[in-house]
Every structure is written in C-alpha cells, then in structure tokens.
C-alpha cells in the first residue's frame, strides 16, 4: 500500500486532475475507467433485466403466489438496514456532537443515499403497477405499516439527496462557481435540522419495516406481540439496524482503503464505530432472545402453532435460530467489544462482517422463511430460488452503487482525514498523530 | 390525503399519521427555503468572497491553521478559529502584549522588511504616506513561483476583499492564486520588477492587526520553511532546504518532480 | 376502522354477513367449482407456463391423503372473507381492500391495487393471487367473456369476492321489483351453483334462520386456523374425525401428503 500524497515520480497521465480534490492522489483516468467498466456492464445487464419485468410483467421472475416477496424484498430490507449507518452517524455527529464521526459522516451519507435509492429502484420494479405508487400518498391506509414505510422512505430519500448535494457542490471544480459555493455554505447551516428530521424518519421506517412482518397475525412465524400499535419486531429492527450501520461503515471504509491503497480514517475512528456497534449489538441480542422466548412459548402457541412446527422443515431447521442469535449475533458483539479496546484491526473487521451477516440472515428469515412455511395444516413447505432476472436486477443496483460511490470517492472529499493521513505517511509514521492534539 | 379525497377520515390515526407527514414536509421545505433566503441575502450583501474564505479555511489541515502565537511559541499548539482575522479575536491582544517584550527574530535566510506587514498567504502590505498601501509577494512566494512565472493582476478599479483572490501566478503545469491581505480598491498595478504588484486604497480606516509584523515574521517564515520541506520531502532528491543552506531562487526548476499544484495550494492557503 | 360508512345507502338495507358451509364429505374433488369460478370471473387461462404456482385460481381444491392410510379428503380453499380482523385489509397501504360493512364481503379493488403483494403475504390461507401476465384469451374466446365482470390487468392482486357482480345483478332485480332486501337463494356465487353434489351451502350468517347459520353452528362444522382470530366466514363440515383433527393443528403436520386439484 505505497501511499503518496505527493508523487515520487512524474504524475501519471490523469486527464481529470482538475476535478480531483487537492492533496490526495488518485489512480490514472485509464485505470479508473478500467475499474468502472465491469460494473457498467453489470449495470447494463441489470437495466435490461429490470426493463424486461417492467415491459412484460413480473412473470420473468421466479416469484409466485406463495413467494410474493423474493430476493428483491429480502435484499432491500438488508441494504436499508445496512444503510442505517447514514442516519445513525448523522445523529451521532449533528445531534449528540460526536466530532470523531466527522471522519466518516460524508461517506455514510453517500452510502445511505445509494442504499435507499437502490432499494427504491428495485421496489419500483418489484411492484406490479409502479405508476400507481402515488396512490399510497393519495389514499393512505394509516393502519398499514407499508404506508408508513412508503412515506418515511420517500421523505428520507429527499433528505439524503439534500445532504448529498453539498458534497457534490464542494467538488474542487464546482466550488469555483461562486453561487454554488455560497449555496453549499448556507445549506450546510441547516444541516443539523435535516439530520434531526432524517433521524426521526429513519427511526420510524426501520421500525416499520420490522413492523411489516410483526403485524402479520395471519403468519404466526412472523407475528409478534408488542407495545401499543408496534410489534416487538418494530423495536428489534431499529436496534439491529443501528447496530449494523456502523459495522457496515467500517467494512466499506476498509474496502475503500484496500481498493484505493490509501489510509482514509484514523484507527481511533474504527474503534469508536466498533464500540458503538458492539454495545448496540449486545443490547439487540439480549432483546432478541427475550423476544424469541416469548414468541415461541406464548405468542405462537396462542395462535395454535407449536415451536417445533416452524423448524421441522429442511433447510430451515433450528440451526438458523442458533446461527442468527449466537454465531452472527453474540459472537460478533463480543469480538467488537473486545477488539475495540485492544487488538488488531482484522478482528474489528471480522466482527463487523459477522454483525452485518447476522442482520442479513435476520432479514432473510423474516422474508423467505416466513413465506416458505405453510400455515394451513394440509399445505406444504416450499422453497424458493431467485432466477437470473432477479439476480441481475439486483446486481445492477449494486453496480450502480459501486459506480456512484467510486465517482464520489474520486471527485469529492468523502474522508476529510485522508489528506492529513497522506501527509503524515509521507513524512513518516512517527509524526502521524501529531495533529490530534490540535483538535 | 386531504379531506374530500376517497379514503380520508377524521380519525385519530389518520390525523396523527398525516399530521406527522405534513410536519416533516414543512420542516424540509422550511430548511430549504431558509437556505435559499440566506443564499440570496449573502449574494446581495456581496459576501461571496468572505464565505469562500470561510469555507476554505475550514478545509485547511490543522498544521496550516496554527495561530500566529503558536508559531512564536507563546501559545503552543493553538489553532486559529477565525480565518486568520485577528481583528475579531479576543485573545490576540493579550498574546501580542506578552510577545511585545522579549520576542527575538530568528534569522532563516528569507529577507523581510520591518516596514511590511505579512499575510499568512505570502502577500505583504506596506503603508504609504498618501494613505494607499503597496502590496506584493514575499520572498518565499517569489522563489516558489520562480522567475519564469507570469503574474496576472486585477485591473485598476477592481475591489478586493480581505482573503479574496488578488492575483494569479502561472507557470508551466501549475497555477498559484494569492489571497488579498487587505480589502480595498486597486489604484495602480505594478510588476515583479518594480518590487510591488498593486497599489491599493484601503476600505475605511487602515487596520493591519491581522497581519504579521515585527519579530514574529521570522518565526513564521521559519515554520513555513519547515512546512515546505515537508511538502517537498517525498520528492526531494537534491539538497534539502533549511539545513542552513540558502534557498534557491527558482524552486520549481530545482525540484521538477514535485507536485507543484499541491505545493502551491498548501503554501498559498488554497485547499 | 378504515372501512366505515363508505357506500352511500339511501334506502337502508339489512345488514348481512354472507358466508358458506362446505361439506367435505360431499366434495368429490371434481373441480367444477374451480372451472365455474374461472368462467364467471373472466379469469384468463394464461400461457402454458402458468402452472399452479403462477396461474390464477381464485378457488383451489386441495387433495389431502393421510400417509400410511387410504383416507383422502378434498378441501376447496377460497377467500375466507375474514370478518373480525381482516389480515389483508389492515396491511394494504392504499385502501385497495375493503370489507363491505353491509355484506361482510372482503372486496379487492384491482383498479386501486399497486401490486405490492403485502396482502398475499399476510393472508394465512394464501387465497390471493397475483396477475403475473397480461390477461389474454385465445382468439375468439373473448366473445364468451362475462360482460358483468371487468378483467384484471397485469400486476394487480385479485381474489374471490363471492361473485360480487351476481350480488349487484340480484340487487338490481330486487330494486326493479321495488324490494329493498334480497330473498334467500336469490344471490349465489358461481361455485355454489356449479357444485354437482351440492356440497356448498351459501347464505346470510347474520340471519339466524338461514340454513347456512344452522349448519355453521353444528358440532361437525369448523373453520381453518380459527385460533388466528380473523373470523373467517367460510365454514367446513365433516363427520370424519381425522379431518376435523387437522383443523386443530396449527401449521402443516409433516405426516400429511398433499396434492392439489
């Protein structure tokens, strides 16, 4: 990872140099285009698959009357949970004033924007009549969790776009335009208000996404009792999302460091995120256990279902429960808590990866396993595998996210500490922490 | 969504739900409107240059934002919070008073004049008897630019704000933009050969408290040399700068491998 | 709740709760009800790949065989018209599902449906279907369509509404004769009419004197998944104890073998 803020040898031919932030080095334009091209190919494939569904109908997918939610809804839930890093770090930075989170807040905003916009794009392919999406606003059923999700996600996407805008306007070339710079400056002034609104919205829709499943009293595998109008999953989804958010930020920051070959944030920021994630994950695992015990022993039995019935079908045996709560819940929580005190970074990242995987498995259980299990006593267990159209559409969204994030990383200042760290590395490692005292 | 639309009812759930939604929308719109109004006001009050400097100052790494009294050793590690404008700083007079006794200039091979007031962006101001001031680039800036560089000056009559971009120095492959040390109207342009670049009639009463003056200038130049050293270090193949040796006249020619775009931006405080 | 006082009713009609009792001992699994339902409701046959997973069937007949035994039961499943806490109605984000307060029929409005399919996930009976294809009929067959029922477009959810168009037609006839309320037997869904063994008895559960009320109250009658508390209005009856035992279980018991009609 040879890192040079100031190049040792003549600059590689960087055509777009004027757009790249000063004080950081980026690969040559050719290299960058080379990196982008496979993603662009994937994006085109995804657009084609999505277009097929929009043009002909959803029969191109492998979903059916039973698996009405497939790969798309499952991964939408997963990426929205992982994208919770955006609202949660905004909350920590603007509302609780944890200044250290400033090192990753911009990256978190971009990631949040990508996760949410990607999820909305997939949803628009997933619903049968996307042009009727506005009906939800016009005739909302206020008892429906999905109406709440739709309202909150739409508003939050607007907030995220407004939060993303200043980052774009701060680009080296764009900020040369005085009106952009002045507008960016004024927009920045109202950002704490928007961060507050974003926190409120995110809080509710992360919960409502869990509520989607928790309120389905027709599906005893998913149904949970709760407080007032909110089932227990409402609170568990919030808690798991804010536990996974910082973990996902750690992973993406680390991946960006590896791929770009630059140090982007200080080690202390990693540790802070790991500690936050670890504490929240521990709380989540605790409440998840309480919830599971109540659900298996009381809620589902009242509906006439006994616990073994849920886990009598391969491949969804009771090992899924063990995997979700212990291997991908308790274990990463302990690793994160331990490694945030001391220990090498690879343990932190290992814990973060396990925590993120745990959230993904949780969302898989609530979407796919819920639908796979029969409710009628003579009905059968079904399994489901997505076909290429579903996979390609989703990969297209991943490609979109990678492309926009790569462009943002190249042309915008996503990691404010990168410049300093580059200089410190150039000067020698012993001087690295010298500026910290000034903060 | 509204009374009268099919599906609307005056139930508690409906009113709370839609009330929350409309409140959120109103807050988002109000924030955007507030930003737009502030934007228009700033534009009308011609605060664009001030805002630019404010934004860019925030972006400067801590090493470039050290307080002038940190450079002299009076307030070690102290960072400036006010965009290098000591006229608004409450602590500055006390530090300055303490420094008035006992601060000794350290010779470091950079010429500077006791009549001149130095801006942190390497421009100087020299008050004249007729109420105007002369403005030019300091010794280090001249060497950073090298004799081959051309200077683009604002035309007479142009109005400059403090910290706005005063002039531009161009050489092959890199451009340096130098910040105006004071606010005022350009009366006359000079040239590098004349030793000054602009004659400016200052706005209002001449107040130079934000500029470096006296023995602290030497301390500042010393730290600037160290900073330059750091910027050049990875590329430095020739003799290093501050080993008591003299600074070469034409740094870009002496160090062609260095990233001059980056060095200019760092030395002239333009992130 | 959400669906109250929606339909203006100048002449107050009698409040009804339409429901049915299906006698499983009479059901032979012939599938006439399914066919009659598809014909009545203009359900397109769909392309060849529209199998049981994706094809539209508002009514399905399950064949349940007990393993290690020769006992077989045929179980027709349609929308159960849940009346207490209708699972599909509360989840729909845009009020495309309504329980008609006058008739108790759970109505799906395809013209307002977004196709999000949340209602399908919430339905414990999987009695809802999604239009994966554009509706299409073989050339010439469109002349045989029922003019009283609008075909549903691609991308929306549909389900049994107890042949709602037949209710309207019956009400229109009654109004023409100056009657406010319907006579028993004046309105029956297509499946009830088509059943060759008369296994389905249809009527008003709110009318204690009706046959459907009488049958529903008998000890041989039961409802599927009663403990979920959704108040289904479709009852089943059988004298066979093992079938009634099935209903006491919650989810599927792995000792049953299932095929579908």
Word description of this protein:
The complex is a heterotrimer of chains A (439), B (271) and C (261). Chain A has 439 residues and is an all-alpha fold. Chain A has a single domain (63-384), classed as Formate dehydrogenase/DMSO reductase fold, CATH 1.20.1630.10. Chain A has helices at 29-56, 71-82, 84-95, 105-126, 135-138, 145-169, 178-189, 191-214, 232-260, 267-302, 307-310, 319-341, 345-372, 388-411, 417-427; strands spanning 226-227, 230-231. In chain A, strands 1-2 form a two-stranded antiparallel sheet. In chain A, strand 1 (226-227) and strand 2 form a beta hairpin. Chain A is globular, with a radius of gyration of 23 Å. Chain B has two domains: 1-45; 52-267, Beta Barrel (OB fold (Dihydrolipoamide Acetyltransferase, E2P)). By secondary structure, chain B is of the alpha+beta class. The model of chain B is unreliable at 235-239 (pLDDT under 50). The radius of gyration of chain B is 25 Å and the shape is elongated. In chain B, strand 2 and strand 3 form a beta hairpin. Chain B has helices at residues 12-44, 48-59, 68-71, 92-100, 139-145, 216-232, 251-254, 260-267; strands spanning 117-118, 123-127, 133-137, 150-152, 159-160, 165-171, 174-179, 184-191, 196-202. The two termini of chain B are 49 Å apart. With 261 residues, chain C is α+β, with helices and mostly antiparallel strands. Chain C has a single domain (18-249), classed as Alpha-Beta Plaits. Chain C is built from seven helices and eleven strands. In chain C, the strands form four sheets. In chain C, strands 8-1-10-9 form a four-stranded mixed beta sheet. Chain C has a three-stranded antiparallel beta sheet with strand order 3-2-11, with no helix packed on it. Chain C starts with 17 loop residues before the first strand and ends with a strand. The mean pLDDT of chain C is 89. Chains in contact: A-B, A-C, B-C. At the A-C interface, helix 5 and helix 6 of A face helix 2, helix 3, strand 6 and helix 7 of C.
């Amino acid at each position: 990872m040879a890192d040079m803020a100031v190049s040792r040898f003549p600059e590689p031919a960087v055509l777009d140099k004027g757009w790249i932030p000063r004080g950081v080095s980026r690969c040559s334009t050719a290299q960058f285009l080379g990196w982008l091209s496979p993603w662009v190919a994937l994006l085109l494939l995804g657009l084609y698959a999505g277009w097929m569904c929009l043009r002909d109908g959803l029969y191109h997918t492998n979903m059916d009357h039973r698996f009405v939610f497939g790969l798309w809804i499952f991964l939408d839930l997963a990426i929205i949970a992982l994208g919770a890093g955006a609202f949660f770090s905004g909350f920590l930075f603007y509302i609780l004033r944890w200044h250290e989170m400033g090192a990753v807040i911009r990256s978190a905003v971009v990631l949040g924007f990508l996760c949410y916009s990607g999820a909305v794009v997939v949803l628009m392919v997933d619903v049968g009549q996307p042009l009727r999406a506005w009906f939800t606003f016009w005739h909302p059923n206020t008892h429906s969790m999905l109406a709440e999700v739709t309202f909150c996600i739409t508003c939050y996407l607007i907030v995220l776009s407004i939060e993303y805008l200043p980052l774009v306007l701060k680009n080296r070339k764009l900020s040369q335009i005085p009106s952009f710079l002045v507008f960016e400056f004024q927009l920045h002034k109202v950002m704490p208000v928007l961060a507050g609104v974003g926190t409120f919205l995110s809080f509710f829709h992360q919960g409502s996404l869990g509520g989607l499943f928790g309120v389905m009293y027709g599906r005893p595998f998913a149904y949970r009792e709760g407080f007032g109008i909110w089932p227990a999953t409402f609170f568990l989804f919030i808690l798991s999302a804010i536990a996974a958010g910082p973990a996902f930020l750690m992973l993406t920051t680390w991946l960006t460091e590896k791929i770009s070959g630059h140090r982007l944030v200080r080690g202390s920021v990693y540790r802070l995120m790991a500690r936050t994630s670890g504490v929240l994950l521990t709380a989540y695992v605790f409440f998840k256990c309480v919830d599971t015990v109540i659900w298996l022993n009381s809620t589902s039995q009242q509906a006439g279902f006994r616990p073994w019935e849920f886990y009598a079908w391969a491949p969804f045996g009771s090992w899924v429960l063990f995997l979700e709560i212990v291997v991908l819940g308790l274990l990463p929580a302990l690793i994160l808590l331990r490694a945030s005190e001391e220990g090498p970074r690879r343990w932190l990242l290992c814990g973060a990866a396990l925590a993120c995987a745990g959230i993904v498995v949780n969302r898989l259980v609530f979407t796919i396993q819920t639908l796979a299990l029969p409710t009628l006593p003579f009905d059968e267990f079904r399994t489901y595998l997505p076909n290429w159209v579903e996979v390609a559409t989703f990969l297209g969204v991943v490609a979109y996210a990678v492309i926009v994030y790569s462009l943002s990383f190249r042309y915008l200042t996503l990691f404010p500490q990168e410049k300093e760290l580059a200089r410190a590395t150039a000067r020698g490692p012993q001087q690295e922490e010298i500026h910290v005292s000034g903060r | 969504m509204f009374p009268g639309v099919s599906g609307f009812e005056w139930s508690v759930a409906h009113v709370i739900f839609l009330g929350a939604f409309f409140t959120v929308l109103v807050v988002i719109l109000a924030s955007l409107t507030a930003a737009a109004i502030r934007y228009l006001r700033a534009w009308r009050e011609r605060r664009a240059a001030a805002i630019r400097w404010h934004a860019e100052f925030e972006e400067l790494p801590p090493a470039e934002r050290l307080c002038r009294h940190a450079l002299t050793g009076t307030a070690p590690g102290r960072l400036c919070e006010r965009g290098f404008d000591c006229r608004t700083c409450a602590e500055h007079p006390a530090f300055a008073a303490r420094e008035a006794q006992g601060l000794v200039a350290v010779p470091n091979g950079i010429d500077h004049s006791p009549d001149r007031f130095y801006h942190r962006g390497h421009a100087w101001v020299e008050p004249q008897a007729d109420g105007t001031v002369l403005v030019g680039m300091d010794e280090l800036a001249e060497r950073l630019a090298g004799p081959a560089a051309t200077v683009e000056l604002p035309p007479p009559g142009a109005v400059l704000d403090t910290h706005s971009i005063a002039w531009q120095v161009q050489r092959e492959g890199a451009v340096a933009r130098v910040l105006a040390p004071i606010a005022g109207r350009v009366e006359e342009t000079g040239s590098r050969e004349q030793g000054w670049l602009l004659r400016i009639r200052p706005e209002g009463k001449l107040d130079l408290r934000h500029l470096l003056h006296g023995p602290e200038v030497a301390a500042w130049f010393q730290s600037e040399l160290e900073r330059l050293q750091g910027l050049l270090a990875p590329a430095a193949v020739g003799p290093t700068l501050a080993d008591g040796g003299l600074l070469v006249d034409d740094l870009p020619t002496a160090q062609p491998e260095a990233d001059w775009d980056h060095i200019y931006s760092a030395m002239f405080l333009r992130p | 709740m959400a669906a109250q006082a929606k339909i203006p009713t100048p002449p107050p009609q009698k409040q009804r709760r339409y429901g049915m009792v299906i006698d499983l001992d009479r059901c032979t699994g012939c599938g006439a009800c399914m066919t009659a339902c598809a014909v009545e409701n203009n359900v397109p046959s769909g392309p060849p790949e529209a199998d049981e997973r994706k094809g539209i069937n508002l009514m399905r007949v399950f064949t349940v065989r007990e393993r290690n035994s020769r006992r077989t039961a045929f179980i027709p499943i349609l929308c159960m018209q849940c009346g207490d806490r209708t699972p599909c109605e509360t989840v729909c984000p845009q009020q495309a599902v309504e329980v008609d307060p006058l008739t108790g029929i759970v109505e799906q409005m395809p013209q307002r449906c977004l196709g999000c399919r949340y209602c399908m996930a919430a339905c414990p009976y999987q009695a809802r279907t999604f239009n994966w294809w554009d509706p299409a009929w073989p050339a010439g067959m469109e002349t045989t369509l029922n003019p009283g029922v609008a075909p549903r477009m691609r991308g929306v959810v549909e389900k049994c509404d107890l042949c709602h168009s037949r209710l309207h037609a019956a009400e229109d006839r009654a109004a023409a004769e100056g009657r406010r309320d319907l006579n028993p037997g004046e309105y029956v869904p297509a499946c009830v009419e088509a059943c060759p063994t008369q296994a389905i008895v249809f009527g008003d559960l709110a009318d204690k004197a009706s046959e459907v009320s009488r049958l529903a109250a008998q000890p041989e009658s039961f409802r599927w998944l009663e403990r979920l508390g959704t108040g289904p209005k479709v009852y089943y009856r059988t004298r066979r104890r093992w079938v009634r035992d099935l209903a006491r279980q919650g989810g599927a018991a792995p000792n049953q073998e299932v095929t579908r009609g």
